[in-house]
Design goal:
The protein is built from 27 helices and 21 strands. By secondary structure, it is of the alpha/beta class. It has 3 domains: 187 residues, OB fold (Dihydrolipoamide Acetyltransferase, E2P) (Beta Barrel), CATH 2.40.50.140; 164 residues, Rossmann fold (3-Layer(aba) Sandwich); 178 residues, P-loop containing nucleotide triphosphate hydrolases (Rossmann fold), CATH 3.40.50.300. Helix 8 packs across helix 9, helix 10 packs antiparallel against helix 12 and helix 11 packs parallel to helix 12. The radius of gyration is 29 Å and the shape is globular.
Length: 733
């Protein structure tokens, strides 16, 4: 009898180099243990058919369905032998919906013989749209005969596991690979303390792994999921609890504002009163800053709730206490925007050391990668001497050359856009660990905050300041009702005639390379969706067509920083009517006179991104309008997502919708340093209770045994879940 492979055995040895290479490159699976923890996304019942109506666009899917119809078409093609090409169109059904499959060229012969009406099979491919119908082009497939020896053995039982797969590796091939390594599940060491497992009636880990991959009943799946969810929640919360524990041991310099210092002077010159929410959150931050271990606080709030003002007051409190504060922004456009708005808000208080500067003033420095050498030298000197109490910059702040006199507070704007190493490098520039305030403009449900930012205390700003106007949002179905799009451009003209301005947002910049690709399209390419609309194309079309005579400008990430800044300044000054841009305007751009935004191909953006973009209008006294243009069919999941955005302005509600519609890994992967998400089974919205209970258990365990010396299997699971890169991430924060 063959020896059972160990959990750390490389897949190359067990499955062969070719399969192992695809698993490593496309799924991030390297060892037998990795593969055992690659769980089915769902299960098909042999006797049932898949629901085809709600397939997600642009994703690889696996469906079990029956062939309803197959037709072979011949068409003229200069690329095919004898000038004739062939296309096979197969319609599959699940009884409630239909899906088109298409095969071209030499690829038609095998499916033409095998995919006969009445045949049942598993199909895998990427969902695209052609002629406004969903289709799979050149899908891989596996016939389900039920009498073929291999199929009966491989898919024992009636439940067929469907795995997260890729174009290079279909679900059924992953299933066969798992068959090979499944005996190794017996070797899995159980990370949960025995008392916790028994107290909650959870099955042992080896049993859970067998049941998740080869269930005989739906109850098997439930048992396995309940157990594996606890593993994920508990191990992750232990990692976060250990970090909270370690942070609480670090020293920091307490920073208390002076009663007659720069903060008091700043508050006196504010032309409005703070909202109750801003006052409350500021008090929480000031209390943290006054302690002798570093603050770790997450400040989240609605678009336009005044987070920058709250962060600035925290920075000024630190300046009052003799320290310096640094704000790290994800892009140059945003760093320049913050610098401009902060110096404007501070007025003479930002003119330290200059004639006309107020008595308690400081300097506000800007540091970005594209600054000229002289300006850069000047900024570096102001930081090193302490002349600049506040500095705003991009990752240029992190370079070795940058020295601070006494860094007391780091504010990170839009945290998920920063690599962990970057944030850590900036924190390392203080004499003692500086206090840390992380801001996010994407409202996060409590469970996500607990899972992703579980080491941070959370403050929420959910009130909008007085004077902010409501924003009306509408979906513009460009394919069904083209006259709606024409009306959208009329609305833009009407707003400009009233003296207002408009944004038009596109998913892509558009350049020669894209144009070259577009010119070479063939019938085979037509199976793919058209490329996303581009800024350069749309700007030209609008300037020549529906917006002719208006001042149309362009802004995108590939422009030179000075050019970007000049465009933003002109737009802010009202010297341009319409700004056609990519998502560089997504966060922080503040032009109160802009009242309308048209988002082209809106279905190509995520929910939180659309909410962010929409927040750029309605920032003044006139009401805002956001038009979401889409060619997707009414029944598609993409259109339902847009309808959800149009129906509410509540970012917290939308973040829940976003999470329910996207896979967790996208959300958590983005926030957790960009590594593959550790969550495969846990759904952070559904499993709120598990996460909250796991956090309590983890805090208890770590308080009693910070190094987990009495729980070696938990320590091992922690190392596996938090691979080296993630472990560093959690330690650095």
């Amino acid at each position: 009898m063959d020896a059972v492979p160990a959990l750390d055995e490389p897949l190359k040895k067990v499955l062969g180099p070719a399969t192992a290479k695809v698993m490593a490159e496309h799924l991030g699976l390297h060892t037998v243990g990795d593969l055992l923890h690659h769980y089915p996304r769902r299960y098909e019942e042999r006797g049932q058919l898949t629901h085809l109506a709600d397939l997600p666009m642009d994703e690889h899917v696996t469906v079990v369905a029956q062939v309803a119809d197959a037709r072979l078409h011949t068409f003229a093609s200069s690329r095919a032998p004898r000038g004739k090409g062939q296309r096979l169109e197969v319609t599959i059904t699940d009884g409630s919906g239909r899906l088109q499959l298409v095969f071209f060229g030499a690829g038609v012969h095998k499916p033409h013989k095998e995919l006969l009406p009445g045949t049942r099979a598993m199909f895998a491919g990427k969902v695209s749209v052609f002629n406004r119908r969903l289709q799979l082009a050149h899908p891989a497939y596996e016939l389900l005969h039920g009498d073929a020896e291999e199929t009966v053995e491989t898919w024992a039982g009636t439940l067929i596991p469907i795995y997260p797969a890729t174009a290079k590796l279909e679900s059924w091939k992953i299933g066969k690979a798992l068959q090979t390594v499944l005996p190794s599940a017996q070797e899995a060491a159980d990370p949960l303390p025995g008392s916790l497992r028994e107290g909650r009636g959870l099955v042992p880990l080896p049993e859970a792994l067998l049941k998740i991959h080869r269930p005989h009943t739906k109850a098997d799946i439930e048992d396995a999921r309940a157990r594996l969810k606890w593993d994920e929640a508990f191990v992750l919360q232990v990692a976060l609890a250990r970090r909270r524990y370690a942070d609480a041991q670090l020293p920091a310099v307490p920073r208390r504002p002076r009663p007659d210092g720069i903060l008091a002077a700043f508050d006196d010159r504010l032309p409005f009163t703070l909202t109750d929410g801003q006052r409350k959150v500021s008090e929480e931050i000031f209390a943290d800053l006054a302690t002798d271990h570093p603050m770790h606080r997450l400040l989240q709030g609605e678009v336009g709730s005044g987070k920058t003002l709250v962060a600035l007051r925290a920075m000024l409190a630190v300046v009052d206490a003799g320290g310096q504060a640094a704000m790290l922004a994800p892009t140059e456009v945003l760093a320049q925007q913050h610098h401009r708005s902060i110096t404007e808000m501070m007025g003479e208080l930002a003119e330290g050391g200059m004639l006309g500067g107020a008595e308690s003033a400081t300097k506000v420095a800007l540091l970005t990668g594209s600054m000229g050498a002289a300006a850069r030298r000047h900024a570096l000197l102001d930081l090193a001497t302490g002349e600049a109490g506040v500095v705003i910059g991009t990752h240029a702040l992190i370079e070795d050359k940058v020295q601070f006199h006494d860094l007391g507070l780091v504010v990170v704007d839009e945290q998920h856009r920063f690599g962990v190493e970057q944030r850590d490098a900036l924190r390392g520039k203080g004499k003692q660990p500086p206090h840390l305030l992380v801001m996010t403009a994407t409202p996060i449900p409590r469970t996500v905050a607990m899972t992703v930012f579980g080491d941070l205390e959370t403050s929420v700003l959910d009130q909008l300041p007085a004077g902010r106007s409501p924003i009306a949002s509408h979906v513009v179905p460009a394919a069904d009702k083209p006259h709606f799009l024409a009306r959208a451009w009329e609305r833009v003209r009407e707003e400009v005639e009233k003296g207002h301005q408009a944004y038009v947002v596109c998913p892509r910049i558009g350049d020669e390379e894209d144009g070259a690709k577009a010119k070479k399209r063939t019938p085979e390419d037509e199976a793919e969706k058209r490329p996303p609309l581009a800024v350069l194309d749309i700007a030209e079309q609008l300037a020549r067509g529906p917006l002719a005579g208006l001042r149309v400008e362009v802004l995108h990430g590939r422009m030179q920083p000075d050019d970007k800044d000049a465009v933003m300044r002109r737009f802010a000054a009202g010297e341009a009517d319409v700004l056609v841009a990519t998502t560089v305007i997504e966060v922080g751009v503040n032009v109160p006179n802009a009242t309308v935004m048209v988002i082209m191909d809106a279905d190509r953006f995520g929910v939180s991104q659309l909410h962010q973009l929409r927040g750029r209008v309605g920032r003044g006294s006139a009401p805002g309008l956001c038009l979401l243009v889409s060619e997707m069919p009414e029944a598609s999941a993409a259109r339902q997502r847009l309808n959800a955005v149009a129906s509410t302005l509540d970012g917290f509600e939308l973040s829940r919708v976003d999470l329910e519609q996207r896979r967790e890994g996208d959300v958590l992967g983005q926030a957790q340093s960009g590594t593959r998400s550790s969550l495969r089974m846990l759904a952070v919205i559904e499993d709120e209770e598990v996460i909250a209970e796991a956090r309590e258990e983890a805090t208890r365990v770590v308080a009693a045994d910070p190094d987990l010396e009495r729980l070696p299997a938990l320590r091992t699971a922690l190392d596996a879940l938090l691979d080296e890169e993630r472990e560093q991430y959690l330690e650095k924060g």
